[in-house]
Amino acid sequence: MKNSGCALGLLGLALLWSDKLGAVELGTAEQARAMLERAAAALKVDEDAALKAFNDEHNKDFRDHDLFVYCFAIADGKFTAYELPFLLNNDIRQMKLYNEPLGQRAYDAAHDAAEGAVVTIEYKYPKPGTRSPAPKEAFQERVGDQACGVSYFK
Questions:
Q1: What's the rounded Cα separation, in Å, for the pair 60 and 65?
Q2: pTM of the model
Q3: How confident is the model at residue 17 (pLDDT cuts 50, 70, 90)?
């Protein structure tokens, strides 16, 4: 993403995408944390294979309910895994949500974390099928040159 206008445009597309999902069973904090643990273990074994699995829309180990693994490179902030393919290779630091620099906060938290430490980011985002912001939390972990996360609605 080159500018915040683009970030807002991509966020708008993501919100429209979430509307298409309609009513889905929401994942829990425990399920999100377990998914992140599986993702970190997979990254440690084979980063390329893990990122491919995270981006596979049919892989239920890394996409279940409304939960999915996202990753970005620590070096440049570019997404290497995300539920929405059009966000791949876009810089997380450029993403804003309700005029808040959520992407920069997410990047800073992971960048400054120790290897293997899990950090959390709280924010608001509409639940699938709605437009009203709801409390959400992301667990993020730094594994090598990647930072990955899974978020859930509180």
A1: 9
A2: 0.84
A3: very low
DSSP 90: S
Determine contact, residues 136/125, Cβ cutoff 8 Å. Answer: yes
**pLDDT tens figures, 58-84:** 999 999 999 999 999 999 999 999 999
- φ, ψ of residue 11 to 5 degrees: the values are -65, -40
Domain holding 19, by residue range, is: 4-153
CB of 138 within 8 A of CB of 150?
yes
Q: Any idea which residue has 């981006």 for tokens?
A: 55
Instruction: Report the number of distinct structural domains present in the chain.
Output: 1
Domain with residue 91: its CATH number is 3.30.450.20
Both structure tokens of 83: 């539920």
